[in-house]
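Section 4.2 – Deliverable D4.2 (structural model, holo form)

The reporting period included a commitment to supply a predicted holo structure for the target in complex with zinc ion. Inputs used:
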Amino acid sequence: MGEIYGALEAGGTKMVCALGDENGRILEQTRIPTTTPEETMSAVLDFFRGRGIRALGIGCFGPVDVNRDSATWGRILDTPKLAWRDYDVAETAAQALGVPVGFDTDVNASLLGEVTYGDSKGLTDVVYYTIGTGIGAGILAGGQLLHGMLHPEAGHMLLTPAPGDTYPGKCPYHGHCFEGLASGPAIADRWGKPAEALKDKPEVWKMEAYYIARALTNTIMILSPQRIILGGGVMHQEQLFPMIRKRVRKNISGYLHTREMEDLDTYIVPASLHDDQGIMGAVRLAIDAASRGV
Ligand code: ADP
Ligand code: ZN
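Output (structure tokens):
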């Protein structure tokens, strides 16, 4: 029998805990609500204890310290969820379980799931955006997850307001950054109803596609990815995909001549792992931690 790996998708509202095999197959899974760190983590660790896991992979809501050489590696940084600020998720788990721990952002884990087990397997340069309560980006460049000085925060790129949009933006730091203008809460705030209740309002999705296409165009020009994957609650509005592709094509204005640009249907795509990309990516983080030995 093969090894068993532990996987944790740590989110602001829930923790998904799973056991997986080396093929990313999920063998068992449970959800625990996110309350205080002590209460939540003790339930999470109870799930993994005594299960013979070889290593644990964690994809965590952020901002987080993912730099292995840093004294605060594995901690949650200045999150608005005050109880979790400075909480040492990775070290707590490593000490309690005595196994190697892999730790990265939730979006990097989703990206890793897609390029390891999903339709983007084998690609080396991919960007994954989640458009939900917040907007986050995971970036794979030259086959490596990009961290840089902290980790990418592409959800906070500044965008100019769409023609006729007087909404000031919801981000407390930047107002009209990508997240401030296009996250689920920004849509709800601008239009007065939750995003999922606005399906029949074409003007909502026209504006949403406008912002997403601006952000993707910037992303394409900076990172030159082979593919962009879009996940998160807002992207359940599937009518957005063709609208976004059309606008991206217009924004690029014939400037790029690559095979990818010829077929935007396979270039700007939904996640392929049916909302399991995050937890499967956490399995991959565990496998990598096991092979590193820490
Ligand atoms: P989170 O970002 O909290 O992990 P989600 O990715 O599900 O979780 O994002 C939640 C956000 O997505 C909420 O703002 C919600 O209004 C929005 N959302 C969820 N489902 C839909 C949908 N079917 N259509 C549009 N917006 C949605
Ligand atoms: Zn912002």
